[in-house]
């Protein structure tokens, strides 16, 4: 058992009792203190943590995610911000760049299809394409990360990268990474809605069963 099964949440404000499996009280001896020491020894980590906590305190429930991101960028003193965007959300990327520019933020974006390399080059079968027999560029999150690394961005923002591709981007990005938009085309990029609707009486109660959605018809 872990935090994934906890409904107490005593770690947030110490207003109750820790469950027997709580990771706060069952962490390896000295682990909590050792990690706190990392914040204190790393000026960058400490500043990032304090800046995020300050935003939570002063703008909680008042600022949107876009606004919080821009506030974070400003308060951290970041000058150049990279955007790793899904090709299908270029419009949203352009909108964010326009909003950021109005706040004095320099944005450098790289779309997921950069390089225009066909999916078959890395081993995808032709019949696995969305439209077999046509050129379909692979998503290239490693190249996205490399280009943003070369651009020496201070922070990288993800806009709608696919599951797995986002993981590769985060793995290879030298700059810290934050999410602006998590792609979910079924739910208008609001993946939490599936969880809210997964209750026994909800439209997505199927999530409580063992089955996964069927793939598209061939």
Structure description:
α2 packs across α3 (43-59), α3 (43-59) crosses α4 and α6 (141-150) packs parallel to α7 (165-172). The protein has a four-stranded parallel sheet, with helices on both faces. β3 (155-159), α7 (165-172) and β4 (177-181) form a beta-alpha-beta unit. It is globular, with a radius of gyration of 21 Å. By secondary structure, the protein is α/β, with parallel strands linked by helices. The longest helix has 17 residues, at 43-59. The two termini are 40 Å apart. Among the domains are: 32-62, no CATH class; 65-183, Diphthamide synthesis DPH1/DPH2 domain 1 (Rossmann fold). The protein contains eight helices and four strands, in the order ααααβαβαβαβα.
Order of helices and strands: HHHHEHEHEHEH
Helix content range: 25-40%
Question: Class by helix and strand content?
Answer: alpha/beta
- Beta strand %: 5-15%
**Radius of gyration using CA atoms only:** 21 Å
CATH topology of the domain at 65-183: Rossmann fold
Q: What is the assigned CATH homologous superfamily of the domain at 65-183?
A: Diphthamide synthesis DPH1/DPH2 domain 1
- Tally of separate helices: 8
**Unreliable stretches covering 5 or more consecutive residues:** none
Q: Averaging pLDDT over every residue, what do you get?
A: 92
Distance between the termini: 40 Å
Q: What is the CATH architecture term of the domain at 65-183?
A: 3-Layer(aba) Sandwich
CATH class of the domain at 65-183, named Alpha Beta
Tally of DSSP β-strands: 4
Mind summarizing the main beta sheet?
4 strands, parallel
Shape estimate: globular
